[in-house]
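We recall that each integer encodes one residue's backbone shape. We quote one record:
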Amino acid sequence: MNGTEGNGVVNPGAKIGDDFYDAMLQHIAGRFVALPDKPEETPETTLHALWHFAAGEPQSVEGAMQRALPGLNASDTDALRRAVDRRLSGVPLAHITGRQRFLGIDFFAGPDALVPRKETEILGRLALSHMAKLSAERGKLRIADICTGSGNLAVSLALHEPRCTIEATDISVPALRLAHLNAAHHGVADRVTLRDGDLFGGFAGQGFEGTFDLIVANPPYISSGKLKAMASEIAEHEPSLAFDGGGFGLSIVGRLIKEAPTYLKSRSWLCFEVGAGQGPHMKTSLERVGAYGAIETASNDAGQIRVLAAQTR
């Protein structure tokens, strides 16, 4: 069985035994480079996502695996081969398909902002846990999402907690355009306001001091010297603004923990992501600031602290 009918259309729902499917899968597997921060991507899931993209039905990896493979005509098979070649040349899968799933929600993705990672879901889940407790006490919540990028955190929090409004900032105007698209697509643009600014620069002088119940952030935390050593898929295709955290990778995170208390209410929370190995140092930094009382950490499956949460006194 070759998986192709006489009219050049690949059979819908092609099985593993189909020659064309097998050939493409082997082609991908032979040159596939797995990245630890994208565990959802394997040769098989990559092929499914690109197959749907070539058929004009772009999906996230997870979305593609939940659907039967559509039929491909001759033009589609050519598009699939080109998409596979782009992926194997190092172009991120989400840049080709334009889709990425985060906290169970599919987002538009592209080169203007960081592709949402599974590790950041640790931050999202911890933030949602605190939001549930805060909303039970306070009702409506005002949230800030700093370094919002594609808006995946802001939109996810807004969708999961309808009693909140979110002010999201980013220094990158192209990233904010993508965030606008995601907020509008998911119907939360009326509760997610996007602002151009460096960290809290979008709030300065506008009466936001002491008004937030929760601040979330996935700031840049890679040291400048390590950027070139990152996988080419990241270093050559994703915006350096989303990664470059200064000389030791801690410059922006350090500013975040010092500036956040100005904008938080009392007994409110700052939740943020840190790089592998940075957790203990940043916990000490939070303790030294003096504005925080309770401090929590959340770790990944390897036991590394990847998220910290600190409550203002």
